[in-house]
Amino acid sequence: MVEVDLIKHLLNDATLQTLISNSVYPLLAPENSPSPYITVQTININDETSLEGVNYSSKYTFQIDVFSSFYEQMKEITSAVKSSVYQFSHIVYEFNSRDIYEKDTQLHRQLIEFKINKRGD
Fold first, then answer.
1. Pairing of the two strands 24-26 and 37-49
2. DSSP, res 21
3. Nearest C-alpha neighbor of 75 from the set 99, 93, 92
4. Is 32 helix (H, G, I), strand (E, B) or coil?
């Protein structure tokens, strides 16, 4: 599963380990998690098939959110996430990100979206 592999990849990244330890969570972080941390979600999976029904490619859209109390730290973690994602074992493209401030939690958030193309088995 690409989703599980991506999370494992992020958890094993040495730079991210230094910045956020093991604070990589699928979907949502546990309640009252200390920042900084990141969450990973699958937004969409689009299977491309041949006319015969053979799956030859799957295109995944992922969202990674970086949360931190400090803007500069959020940007540093975002840079490390980007580097790590581009080293992932599948083709990564359309990497987009934007800044958000969460007033209710008082956390800076970087919303990152990107796509991964996985060739069929």
1. parallel
2. T
3. 99
4. coil
3-class SS of residue 16? helix
Angle at 84 between CA 64 and CA 39, to 5 degrees: 20
Helices (H), 52-107: 71-86
What are the two backbone dihedrals, phi and then psi, of residue 19, each rounded to the nearest 5 degrees? -85, -40
Put the strands of the sheet holding 24-26 in their side by side order: 24-26, 37-49, 55-68, 107-119, 91-102
pLDDT digits (tens, 9 = 90+) for 59-111: 999 999 999 999 999 999 999 999 999 999 888 999 999 999 999 999 999 99
Position 94, amino acid: E
Out of 3.40.50.970, 3.30.2000.30, 3.40.50.300, 3.40.50.720, select the CATH number for domain 2-119. Answer: 3.30.2000.30
